[in-house]
Structure prediction request, 223 residues.
Amino acid sequence: MQAGNARYRTQKDLPETVAVFPLSGALLLPGGRMPLNIFEPRYLEMTDHALAGDRLIGMIQPRLDGALRTDGEPELCEVGCLGRITSYAETGDGRCLVSLQGVCRFRVASELSAKTPFRQCRITAFIADLDAEAGASEVDRPALLKAFRAYLKANDLDADWESVSRAENAMLVNALSMMAPYGPAEKQALLEAPDLRTRAETLIAMTEIALARDDDDFGSSLQ
Prediction:
């Protein structure tokens, strides 16, 4: 898994504006793959718009404090992630199934007064994300795998350890972050982590906190 693909190398390869898809609890990271089941008419139109252009959509969360614009639409978080549509299928009942591959994160510079039913933003891309392995050597892989194993064991889950062992650090950190069953605030913290090492450390800390809380809850139930 690599961030984006060879077509994205520099700032000029990325758009200055992008259609955005606000979705709470959704986390897309560079190189990650996200399936989407799209059925709202405005987002079906957004998908058609992307397919007719650069195939890019900006995944972003509504602002965590629940703030709304005057028209009732949610305000947006400052940071999201560009995703390229890599597969598209229509279901026959008005929905479409899309797969996005994460390219790079972006910061919202401003929201456009768009006439389209979907929202569009002017963005500044995180160009450093285009180097898929930047900072990967600084990740504490043993600590990350230890936390992942402990979480799986505590929840009676299993994993394809052969694939995990083959995964490069960048893929491992971003894939586990996207899989992690945490809430919107935690997802946003993982997205906004400045580098892979910090993202891995944040994920480890979140997992350890969740495991400690589960232990406390179990102990309380025995009293």
